[in-house]
Amino acid sequence: MATRTVKTGSEESQGGMGSELGSKVTGTVANTREFLRDVRVEMKQVTWPSREDVIATTWVVIATVAFFGVFLAVVDKLVQMGVAYVFKRFGG
């Protein structure tokens, strides 16, 4: 069974909160150090692509974006012409 103590105002003014704050800051610094150590360990396990792979996939992305840009421009123009035809035909 857990019990909880309640601090009075005089206990808090004598540094009760200060010691808790100090442990929180220390815990935060320790947690940050552990996180950064874990990041360094994980980054050593990453398999990085070669320069040729990056260049090839970049060209694939550029070509795909260009294709869909042209495709959507054509579709937009066709829809625009269709709407204009409907308005001209039926008035509006």
Strand content: under 5%
Radius of gyration: 32 Å
The overall strand count is: 0
The biggest beta sheet reads: none
Mean of residue pLDDT? 83
Shape: elongated
* Helical content (DSSP H or I, runs of 4+): over 70%
Low-pLDDT sequence parts: none
What is the H-and-E element order? Answer: HH
Structural class: mainly alpha
Q: Give the count of helical stretches.
A: 2
Distance between the termini: 78 Å
Structural description of this entry:
By secondary structure, this protein is mainly α. The protein is built from two helices and no strands.
List the helices and strands and how they pair.
Layout: H1 9-44, H2 51-90
Characteristics:
0% strand; mainly alpha; 92 residues; 2 helices; 2 domains
Short description:
With 92 residues, the chain is mainly α. Helices cover 83% and strands 0% of the residues. The protein starts with 8 loop residues before the first helix and ends with a helix.
